[in-house]
Amino acid sequence: MLAFGDPYKVLQIDPDAEPEVVRAAYRALALKYHPDVRTGSQERMASLNQAWGVLRNAAARAAYDNARAEAQHKPEAHKPEVSYQMPAPTPVTPPGKPSGSVLDFGRYAGWSMGQIAASDPEYLQWLARTPIGRTFNREIDALLATRTAAMSTATATADHRPRRFGRS
Prior knowledge:
Mean pLDDT: 83
Radius of gyration: 31 Å
Shape: elongated
Low-confidence stretches: none
Number of helices: 7
Order of helices and strands: HHHHHHH
Strand content: under 5%
Number of domains: 2
């Protein structure tokens, strides 16, 4: 279509707007974004001028509307659907027996704190930093402390193994 975008969006008007509305929108935005004004921008004013150039002339506006209608009726090539949502990496049923408070929100709704600590301790660390998790801070700290203690004893027992090749 056009290099600066849709003139209706640039002027912030409806495509069915009357010529008086188009003119009023252009003038109001030109006063707001003129480069001589503190909130002004040369790029924004240039796009406003280009949009006004298309929409102020009835013949140019009709030609643009026809091209826009044809572009909307063209069948588009199949685009693969892209999802930016992160799927929750949670099993359908929580592992183990419930222990501690049970969450009623988020991806782990219905899970106890102990079950979350066993499967996703990073989530508990995140929850402890958020306002919604403040009520669970003592429980989260206790769960994470026992987890780090268990990990440190596991590494301590691994360090006491006899080493090969003469290093001790």
